[in-house]
Known about the structure:
It is a single chain. It is built from 23 helices and 22 strands. The protein is an alpha+beta fold. Magnesium ion (MG) is lined by residues 61, 64-65, 125, 130.
Amino acid sequence: MSLEGAPGQSAFLFIIRALNHKQVTEWLDLIDMHIHQLSDQLINQIAAGEVIERPSSVVKELVENSLDAGASEITIDLAQGGISRIRVRDNGCGIAREDIPLALSRHATSKIQTLDDLESVASLGFRGEALSSIASVSRLTLNTCTAGASQGWQVSYDAGVSDQQPIAHPQGSTIDVRDLFFNVPARRKFLRAEKTELKHIETLLKRIGLSFFDVDFKLTHNGKQVYHWRAVDKASEHPVRLQSVCGQAFVENAFIIERESTGLRLHGWVAQPTFSRSQADMQYFYVNGRAVRDKVVAHAVRQAFGDVLYHGRHPAFVLFLALDPTTVDVNVHPAKAEVRFRDSRLVHDFIYQTLHRAIAELRPGDGSTTAPSGFVDKLRAAAIHAEAGPISGPTGEYRASPQQSAIALELNDTAAAYQKLYGFERQNTVTDRGNVDIFASDASANEVPPLGFALAQLHGLFILAQNKEGLIIVDTHAAHERITYERMKTAYEQEGRLLQQPLLVPVTLHVSEREVQIVEEGKATFETMGFEVSPSGPESIIIRQIPAILQGADVASLLRDILSDFLAHGRSNRLETTINEMLASMACYGSVRANRKLVMAEMNALLREMETTERSGQCNHGRPTWVQLSIAQLDQLFLRGQ
Length: 642
Ligand SMILES: Nc1ncnc2c1ncn2[C@@H]1O[C@H](COP(=O)(O)OP(=O)(O)O)[C@@H](O)[C@H]1O
Ligand SMILES: [Mg+2]
């Protein structure tokens, strides 16, 4: 007897609930509730319950099959968010006539044969249950034709495979899925509005599109094209696809990651920390080409960005991890959205270190440094807004022309001061005629540092500087804060690490037996962290000494957190985080406050320090420390040449 989706199901449950145990047994006897084999159709529908959650799951399975079939062109046509129709056409290898019934039956696949194959599986599919699952909850038609065959074949599925009909079809397959869940009312009820289902499908295709650059994808909805991503073959063209999927701003703010070591390779793009997002919606991670969600990976990435991102902000990235397939288990999730690494610690540390270094090494002048697209438009909109009032502003303080000559004068000061400070000689840059254009000669152009030379300070808040590209605006406090922070971290690492401070009154903590054991076993580890801590009872520990820098911090709760990290993950980076937080707040204190007037030499010194300081593009809270407005953007702003 079938319960799944049966019309009388709720009435059935109601009766069961109303009866006592003895009555139930008698009643079940009456309706012959003995063990029996489920029908194929029902087994498939139960499998579909796991694999096919909504239209986007169908699209995922069909497109993955097309990719496994080696297709270079895939077209997805949808109607009503995929609810009434999903048709996927490909130019892959097609299915041989004699294999067609197998393709539609459960546990039948061309992708693996043995357990060994499963261990090193390279295809996206391998479970052999997608087509049969989809067919059991929809009206499915399959058209297919193999290379060199004189004609193609069509079958449809309705509780079994129909007879094969000859048809004309180019090499490849077309799978047409209509009326999803027409026979599973329980599932149909959970479907959302057409627009929402379409969004799910778009999100899914973005995920796939980013790992198959050399495949052409077309998506239409209700007869209208949603997008068409052309295949890009060369790596140099990858940004084209990246831009179609993640947008122009991502590409402008992304830098390339590429590292290989100990059998692991990580490559892809990570957006500058200043391009963080309020949601984790631009995070693409692939393991051997398969899009996955993974806790280990997510943790490593979060930790790598820990020092440069605001709380509640999320980094944006597209990253590909490649590793020996036998070291990762892909068969842990019905929709294959999760994986399990054999050595997850190794993978975690590799990802963390790669990203952490890459972020630390970002310097002004690396990759894209210009203000994001749309910035000029926003600026112009703001300016036009301001035009409504008098140009000199209410106080009449700002006037264009006198200021320009002031800048000209100061430029000479700048160059001279710079020369004095660094003994750095630039020919032809400053002539005794008072040349305003310090970058006039080509010879000197190469020597202009990425952040250029200071022109002036604005309202005691911003440094304005000129480089080869155009104008640089620096948030003085933010930049100084980062520099001080990084300096303090280095100093701490060199000298402070071993500085310990005895507690006047030792702190006793009540903890679990397991935690006491961790303290006992990890005494040496705690010592290297600057703690003197030992068991003081079966369920208590005593802290006598702490790292000097933690003076005044809540040591008891820090130690509790460290212990629970050890319990959960076998290690903890909480001490480092806490120390960094302490250093950051000290740095914030010690940094240039607003309205402090800086002389040219100080401004230039700050610019030079920014160029050599790790993570100097963001302040400790993840806000940008500087932006660049190129001459082209300024031209655009003033509508020059338009
Ligand atoms: N678009 C396609 N082109 C060629 N062969 C296909 C296509 N879709 C499915 N097949 C064949 O049908 C089989 C069953 O597909 P499926 O149920 O998705 O299982 P799996 O992908 O796990 O093998 C595949 O192994 C493959 O041989
Ligand atoms: Mg499949």
